[in-house]
Amino acid sequence: MHFCIQFHDWFYQETVASVDPAGAAARRRKPRDQRRPPSAPTTPSTPQRLSTEQLAQALRSHVLSPKRMWTLGYPLEIEPNSTKAVVYINPPPRPRPMTTWDVNAPEFVPGSQGDSGRGSLGSTPRSDSDEEADAVEHLCVRCDKMFRMTRDGEYVKEETCLYHWGRVSSDSRYACCKSMLGSRGCSVARSHVWSGTRPGMNGPLEGYVRARSPRGGVYAIDTEMCYTTAGLELASIAVIAADGRLVYRSLVKPSSPVVDHNTRFSGIRPRDLARATKTLRDVQNDILGFVGTDTILIGHALENDLRALKLLHSAVVDTCALYPHARGFPMRRSLRALSEELLGRTVQRGSNGHSPLEDARAAMDLVLLKVQQEQANRVHSISYQLPILQPYDPLVSSA
Ligand SMILES: [Zn+2]
Ligand SMILES: [Zn+2]
Question: Is 3.30.420.10 the CATH classification of the domain at 57-83+208-368?
């Protein structure tokens, strides 16, 4: 906690001076100073203050390559300047005792042109009835059961979803109820839900947008999603600038009927969406009002946010890649674990679900921390080398 305030100040002082004139800076400095605990560690010995442009420059080496983006599940354009996207989804890394992934199964067959991202898992008729003949199979992301829906988003069969909401920990027990991996679910929901994508190739996906104007800047984005009949859809978004300033925040009306608000994780309650007025298209337009082709977007597992936003963007820095899991990809460290360990900050602990604002700030601060550490290391290595280099430097020798 202490350290994160320290390095946030380190960036903030510069941007306040350059972006925010004296009055606002003074107003902001006061609460920040009040927050600072008396036991806070001293500022690193060689803090180098950065402007947004300098930060963008420092992040260049961390921007994901297209190949890496593809592996991580980012939406990529189908051809230069296209707004149609393709997404490759790796089979999920979490333990799935009820399901084995078969690369020859229908769900691995690339989607057809008319699929439009609905993520059908094949459309072989299994019944003589018209409705079932039109049905597609989806994997429930909560209980791992397969279920069927018509292409219009109607469930073929009413079936409750018995699932565990907790992750499986290293002792093969669910965090929610401590029962063993593969045991009967401890929670019940009215229907199964699916992600909107399937393992393997997804696409071509319609409705994507991309920045066109040559604008820079560095922003962190976080979104929250609800389960609809079309899979996970955008329900809430927050964008913050590198100085921690909230740039944009909105609730979003999903385009398809909501099946489950996913409140435990999304923080979205039915009454929130009832007062949402913006559509995905509105939010896309808003975002492209300040995100340009050179803007660096930051996030934790940002591919999920860009897929929900249907935003094609190539300059991305992902905290999952910045702080990889010790066991390597596809294992990932959670934002909660990274925040607690590196920022000394608790996020995603409340019973009201994630806050996109809190999560975006955590992702931004993790990136600032990395840049600051790299700068400190560089200064340290230069000062460490100086005594060795000096005797060999003709200018020093002749002095
Ligand atoms: Zn459970
Ligand atoms: Zn289910």
Answer: yes
